[in-house]
Amino acid sequence: MDQLAAKEANDATLAPADVLAPIQEMVRACIQCVTCTGSCPNEFAMDYTPRQLWRMVLMNQTKKIFQSKTFALCSACYYCTLRCPRGLPLTEAMEALKQIAARENLTQYKNSVQFYKKFIQSVRRHGRVNEMEFMTMYFAALKNPLTPLRFASLGLKLMSKGKVSMLPPIRQARPLESIFRKVEALEERL
User: Fold this and answer.
1) Long-range Cβ pairs for the range 113-119 (8 Å, 24+)
2) pTM for the full predicted model
3) Alpha-carbon distance 131 to 164, whole Å?
4) Residue 61 in contact with residue 5, Cβ under 8 Å?
5) Where in the chain is the domain with CATH 1.10.1060.10?
6) Quick one: DSSP state of residue 70?
7) Which CATH entry fits the domain spanning 2-104: 1.20.272.10, 3.40.50.2000, 2.40.370.10, 1.10.1060.10?
8) Most buried residue, 39, 82, 154, 190, by most Cβ within 10 Å?
9) Helix extents (H) in the chain
């Protein structure tokens, strides 16, 4: 039993234990009924089921949680939240785990964080995503010149079907800028 306790203590070394405290509060009433797992359309691809993830959160197994890809594969479909017999905010808990991974700058999630940042930059600039600009910024942020080659055939296929344009975007006066500024002001208050 001492070996198990030592392993669990070692698992909590990635981030301070209080990092998980808000999430633990969200899932504290979890009865491990497996409804979230049965409802999840992405469960087949996860290394731990959602139920197992909530147990790890309650057991404060920080290292194991953030080495997992379970929360990163959550598509925020809200099935788990809607079907939870206890009414737990499971989708928000998954989102909170994603935010912690981004804030802690964890290596295995850097590509995902860059993807979202570049997507938002393009939306902020044009009022919608400009696919060509977005992918150019994303691949440049990855700093690996071979990465775009893996997606070249997909890009050519999308261009041939007219789904992605090679033309530069039409210049507009940043239609969503005021909304982004308002959100930033609200976030500063938090």
Assistant:
1) 114/138, 114/141, 114/142, 117/141
2) 0.70
3) 6
4) no
5) 2-104
6) T
7) 1.10.1060.10
8) 39
9) 2-11, 21-27, 35-39, 50-58, 62-67, 79-83, 90-103, 110-126, 131-142, 147-150, 152-160, 177-189
SS3 state at 167: coil
- C-alpha angle with apex 147: 70 to 129, nearest 5 degrees? 75
Q: Please name the residue that has the structure tokens 């440049």.
A: 140
H helix and E strand count, the chain: 12, 0
For 120-169, what is each residue's pLDDT tens digit? Answer: 999 998 888 888 889 999 999 998 889 889 988 998 898 899 888 877 76
Q: Return the C-alpha torsion angle 144, 148, 150, 154, nearest 10.
A: 160
| Residue reference for tokens 């006066």 | 173
166's CB contacts (< 8 A; 6+ apart) are 132, 159
Residues 81, 77, 32, 4, CA torsion sign: negative
